[in-house]
Amino acid sequence: MLNTKIHSISQQLQHYAINCSISYFLLICILCISFSSAAVTSVNDLKSQQKNEILFNIHAYYVEDLALQQSFETTQPFEALLAKLDPYSKYLDEKELEALFSSTNGRYTGLGIEVKEQEKQIIILNAIKNSPAAIAGVQKNDIVLAVNQQSVVNKDINQVTSMIRNSDTATVILTIKRNDAIQPIDFALTRTEISLESVTSSLSEFGIGYLAINNFSNNTLHEVARQITKLQSNYGNSLTGLVLDLRDNPGGTLQSAVAVSDLFLQSGTIVTTRGRFYDANQSFSAKKGDILNGAPIVVLINENSASAAEILAAALKDNHRATLIGSQSFGKGSVQSLIPLGNGNTALKLTTAKYFTPSGQSIDGIGITPDWAINQTALSQIDKVVIIKNEQGNGNRMWPDLSPGDPLLLKAQQLLTMK
């Protein structure tokens, strides 16, 4: 029965392979509309039957064989037992589950900030275009000091997320520290529904396409195919090469990463997964057909390229389809599955498998080593597009004039024009 439940929910989300822990997190805050006021807010508030269901699922499906039952029979808090799992496994309440489905479908209700936790500080990595944060003037490298006047000092990303999500009002006040400002700045941000732009693109005079994938949602495959078709149409011919920008991409669904990889591969293994239960052991292979007709590819990665982004990068590298430029990737080599609990309003996000690159390597905790190592501070998506896009519409000089601001793009241009 549990296999059936997992299969049922996977029709909506499939395996969830997103990095949402210490290093990088897309801050999702849901505006409560129709949830019951009696909704569980802590896993410790669950009833004994619900806890037993969670424990059963862990025993049956967790990637490692753990003995938790004996500890559960003690007075130890249930949250402490779940802490024995890896950082990517957790109980999802109604709000968190709904937020996960929304973001995977390319939309969510929130503030529109991407953050990372670094040296016990919550740092803004990007303000999503046209989001409340971007419109208000929140900037990259801003440091979050407080949420609704409550300090976030020494709090982790999950705690800060909870503070924003559980705010009593739709408007959230973020107190920001900015390097060039003497005093902290308060931003009053009203949560709104945001459409996440999964893919952006641009074209150089040389017929080299630029494609930035920001995350892997259910729409990414179609967006990538549509953007490449548009680039080829604008160029009037097949592209002479492609720059695939996966910098700061935190991941997304496994199936989306596999499908996008298959667009560029004629054959070969894309990724394999291994776990304790039967369905966790799978091998994904490319089918014949290359959307670029063999045109060379350069992939840009950095320390924030994680999970599904690493699957795509490794698939193209190990199959000798692309050259990788940048810095060592994040190193998240596990796959999470959603297991519905009770009536399906809550779920357990559980690590059920490890994934391995086509060469048979696990990148968990290691990351992918680029072919050309170039260190660079992470750019926001707006910066990436501006670097390669000619705002005046004249494509003849965009690469020579703008690429020096981005050494990875400059190296990518050099490699592709030499081929």
Give a structural overview.
Keywords: Hydrolase, Membrane, Protease, Serine protease, Transmembrane, Transmembrane helix. The chain has 419 residues and is α+β, with helices and mostly antiparallel strands. It has helices spanning 2-13, 48-61, 69-72, 78-82, 94-104, 132-136, 157-165, 220-235, 254-264, 308-318, 381-388, 398-402, 407-418; strands spanning 16-18, 25-26, 90-92, 107-110, 113-118, 121-127, 143-147, 150-151, 171-177, 185-190, 192-195, 199-203, 208-213, 241-245, 251-253, 269-274, 282-285, 297-301, 322-326, 334-341, 346-356, 372-373. Strands 2, 5, 6, 7, 8, 9 and 10 form a seven-stranded antiparallel β-sheet that branches. Strands 12-13-14-18-19-22 form a six-stranded mixed β-sheet, sandwiched between helices. Strands 3, 16, 17, 20 and 21 form a five-stranded antiparallel β-sheet that branches. A hairpin with a 2-residue loop joins strand 7 (143-147) and strand 8. Helix 8 (220-235) packs parallel to helix 9. The N and C termini lie far apart (54 Å).
Task: Give the SSE layout.
Blueprint: H1 2-13, E1 16-18, E2 25-26, H2 48-61, H3 69-72, H4 78-82, E3 90-92, H5 94-104, E4 107-110, E5 113-118, E6 121-127, H6 132-136, E7 143-147, E8 150-151, H7 157-165, E9 171-177, E10 185-190, E11 192-195, E12 199-203, E13 208-213, H8 220-235, E14 241-245, E15 251-253, H9 254-264, E16 269-274, E17 282-285, E18 297-301, H10 308-318, E19 322-326, E20 334-341, E21 346-356, E22 372-373, H11 381-388, H12 398-402, H13 407-418
Parallel strand pairs: 13-14, 14-18, 18-19, 19-22
Antiparallel strand pairs: 1-15, 2-5, 3-21, 4-11, 5-6, 6-7, 7-8, 7-9, 9-10, 12-13, 16-17, 16-21, 20-21
Helix pairs in contact: 8-9, 9-10
